[in-house]
């Protein structure tokens, strides 16, 4: 029989463990001592610095003082588990803990964890800042939690047996690990100041985990899969009148818990992917590095990210009003449909709010500050162009003023045209009936 006791402080449970100002903006350093029986071990965020024999089979484990961090990231574990450890190329101690019976299933996650950590160090241009990173898998847990230096998750999410475990589940194990480790920089080192910006933590981790996976195992095509698993999932949920904006003011624990949903994780990640396309990969990455460097051990709100990215866009010679664009995607719910209509030798673009059920009554819980109009980064190609490799230079902007945009002399003739290439934009596209019935080779498929 195995024994384990572990904590889960997020979002507002630290106050149940000890008296504290249990809010993410009120960071503190924690000096932890854990008492255990001799046949057990204990773990916390930092390395153990002293183990004191108290007699009568009791031991007190003293831990190094933590850096400044939010209360929800504090973690304790007491168990009889064993570990497997590796040292990363940048000299980080990475340890994986699990039941003795399951330790042989952790070889893969032990190896890939060090590689993911190293990737993030390079991507964010900021070295791992703790003396160790523990990852513990417990048989029964609500999911995964990015406690700084001590990630706790379900045992199954770190178990892989070659020739037995499916490749699909191996992807899941890699994605879960990549998601939680990304929080070391975006969530732990730099934390959101309140839970209304939960999407910034979780949406970012959801997307950037796929970026890490694309580096680790590009043959899985994780960035393509993100469109299916996250973008499409978010479009389905956010097309309902019962949706909510990405940024939602919350004031009590129940409201906080309700924001851990598809909008925060999947729409949040999808619009950040869109923003990366708008800015270009290099500007986006350098802007993130700027934010982390300037806000390390501190706090952020979403406007801080917009400022960092706008500043970087100016430095890179392509200034962009990031806040003006992104406010239309974060402060109102739902998303637009862009309609492409043939007009002479050109195409006219118009936008309207998408709802799955146009007859649904809006409960009025949320109001739109932009009257459900968006700043839309539109891209397209045609049968005569067939250019599916678009970048930020190819964007045609549709403004939140809602005015139609006319594209003269489009090279399509009577052939097909397609908008929102590779679905980088978080919107749907609709076409005239004749365009729906063209095959990919341009043959008319109209119904008789």
Lateral arrangement of strands in the main beta sheet = 7-8-9-11-10
Count of strand segments: 21
**What integer is the average pLDDT?**
94
Number of DSSP helical runs: 10
Terminal Cα separation, in Å? 70 Å
- In the CATH hierarchy, the third-tier topology of the domain at 4-182 is known as Zincin-like
Which architecture name of the domain at 4-182 does CATH use? Answer: 2-Layer Sandwich
Morphology: elongated
Major sheet characteristics = 5 strands, mixed
Q: Uncertain segments of ≥5 residues (pLDDT<50)?
A: none
- Class computed from helices, strands and strand pairing: alpha+beta
* Proportion of helical residues: 25-40%
Report on the structure:
The structure is a single chain. This protein is of the alpha+beta class and 448 residues long. Among the domains are: 4-182, Zincin-like (2-Layer Sandwich); 336-436, Immunoglobulin-like. It is built from ten helices and 21 strands. The chain has helices at 107-123, 167-182, 198-216, 222-238, 253-258, 262-279, 281-295, 302-315, 322-330, 433-436, and strands spanning 4-6, 33-37, 41-44, 48-55, 58-63, 76-79, 82-87, 93-98, 132-138, 144-145, 150-154, 191-192, 299-300, 336-343, 346-353, 376-378, 380-382, 396-398, 405-407, 417-419, 428-430. It has a five-stranded mixed sheet with strand order 7-8-9-11-10, with helices on one face. Strand 10 (144-145) and strand 11 (150-154) form a beta hairpin. Helix 2 (167-182) packs across helix 3, helix 3 (198-216) packs across helix 6 (262-279) and helix 7 (281-295) packs across helix 8. The chain is elongated and about 90 Å long. The termini are far apart.
């Amino acid at each position: 029989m195995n024994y384990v006791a572990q904590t889960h402080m997020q979002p507002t449970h630290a106050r149940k463990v000890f008296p504290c100002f249990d809010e993410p903006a009120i960071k503190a350093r924690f000096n932890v001592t854990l008492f255990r029986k001799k046949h057990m071990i204990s773990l916390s965020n930092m390395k153990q610095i002293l183990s004191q024999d108290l007699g009568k089979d009791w031991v007190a484990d003293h831990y190094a003082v933590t850096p400044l961090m939010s209360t929800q990231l504090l973690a304790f574990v007491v168990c009889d588990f064993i570990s497997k450890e590796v040292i990363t190329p940048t000299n980080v101690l990475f340890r994986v803990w699990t039941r003795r019976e399951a330790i042989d299933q952790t070889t893969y996650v032990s190896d890939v964890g060090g590689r993911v950590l190293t990737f993030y160090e390079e991507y964010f241009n900021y070295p791992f800042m703790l003396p160790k990173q523990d990852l513990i898998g417990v048989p029964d847990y609500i999911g995964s939690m990015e406690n700084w230096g001590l990630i706790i998750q379900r045992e199954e999410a770190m178990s892989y047996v070659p020739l037995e475990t499916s490749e699909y589940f191996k992807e899941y194990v890699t994605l879960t690990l990549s998601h939680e480790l990304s929080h070391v920089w975006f969530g732990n080192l730099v934390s959101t100041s309140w839970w209304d910006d939960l999407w910034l933590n979780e949406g970012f981790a959801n997307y950037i985990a796929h970026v890490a996976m694309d580096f680790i195992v590009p043959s899985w095509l994780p960035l393509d899969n993100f469109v299916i698993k996250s973008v499409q999932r978010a479009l389905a949920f956010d097309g309902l009148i019962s949706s909510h904006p990405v940024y939602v003011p919350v004031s009590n624990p129940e409201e906080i818990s309700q924001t851990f949903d598809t909008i925060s994780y999947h729409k949040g990640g999808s619009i950040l992917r869109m923003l990366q396309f708008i800015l270009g990969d290099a500007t986006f990455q350098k802007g993130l590095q700027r934010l982390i460097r300037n806000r390390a051990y501190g706090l952020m709100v979403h406007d801080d990210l917009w400022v960092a990215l706008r500043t970087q866009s100016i430095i890179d010679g392509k200034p962009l009003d990031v806040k003006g664009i992104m406010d239309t995607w974060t402060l109102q719910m739902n998303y637009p449909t862009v309609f492409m209509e043939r007009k002479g030798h050109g195409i006219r673009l118009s936008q309207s709010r998408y709802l799955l059920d146009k007859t649904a009554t809006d409960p009025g819980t949320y109001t739109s500050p932009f009257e459900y109009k968006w700043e839309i980064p539109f891209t397209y190609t045609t049968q005569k162009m067939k250019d599916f490799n678009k970048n930020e230079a190819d964007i045609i902007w549709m403004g939140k003023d809602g005015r139609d945009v006319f594209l003269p002399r489009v090279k399509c003739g009577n052939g097909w045209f397609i908008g929102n290439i590779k679905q980088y934009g978080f919107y749907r596209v609709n076409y005239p009936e004749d365009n729906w019935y063209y095959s990919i080779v341009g043959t008319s498929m109209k119904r008789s």
